[in-house]
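Inverse folding, one chain.
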């Protein structure tokens, strides 16, 4: 079997197909799975901010549980379903902080989202003592702002249709990809 499938090209095509039909934010929502130091799985929604070669990026608060999990176990999984093309992408890779992206990513953040990084840490019980923060004036990315890059090593793509198609993709040690059609 010599047929090749590129999960990167497929994902970009799915996002392009989403176009005006879906607001950017909802299309870019994916489920990020991490594992705790005890080996317990955890999963939550994040907005994927960029796709660059084999890397996908998002940002988070370094005081969050997910940032702690990644610090302990960098292997993560992402499940991303794009309705416009009825395609599910399951991406597996290593997550690492990408400080070089901080200023550019911070500049793109809306004030409503910036505010989360300027107040008390996520998950802290609210007791009413924390003053509201003004995110408008914060030009530089704060210490809490953590861009994360996931370098994808493996991808599983399921295209729902009649018939369904599924591809298993793995990155070789030389950085090239091998893709195999598999039974859905
Ligand atoms: C639509 C949507 C988008 C979200 N995007 C992000 C994001 O990009 N980064 C992030 O850290 N949390 C994001 N969240 C919040 C997380 O899902 C989660 O509730 C929060 O970060 C705490 O997760 P943790 O305790 O596992 O760290 C988003 C939630 C929703 C519903």
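Residues assigned per position:
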């Amino acid at each position: 079997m010599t047929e090749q499938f590129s999960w990167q090209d497929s994902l970009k095509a799915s996002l392009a197909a989403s176009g005006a039909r879906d607001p950017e934010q909802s299309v870019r929502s994916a489920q990020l799975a991490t594992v705790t130091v005890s080996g317990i799985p955890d999963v939550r929604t994040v907005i994927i901010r960029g796709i660059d070669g084999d890397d996908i990026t998002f940002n988070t608060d370094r005081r969050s549980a997910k940032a702690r999990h990644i610090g302990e176990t960098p292997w993560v999984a992402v499940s991303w379903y794009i309705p416009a093309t009825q395609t599910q992408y399951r991406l597996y890779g290593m997550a690492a902080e990408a400080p070089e992206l901080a200023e550019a990513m911070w500049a793109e953040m809306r004030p409503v989202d910036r505010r989360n990084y300027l107040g008390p840490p996520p998950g802290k019980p609210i007791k009413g003592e924390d003053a509201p923060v003004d995110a408008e004036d914060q030009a530089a990315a704060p210490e809490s702002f953590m861009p994360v890059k996931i370098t994808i090593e493996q991808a599983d793509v399921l295209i729902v249709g009649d018939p369904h198609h599924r591809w298993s993709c793995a990155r070789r040690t030389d950085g090239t990809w091998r893709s195999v059609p598999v039974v859905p």
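The pocket of flavin mononucleotide is lined by residues 29, 42, 44-47, 58-61, 64-66, 122-123 (CB under 6 Å). Residues 29 and 47 are 5 Å apart (CA to CA).
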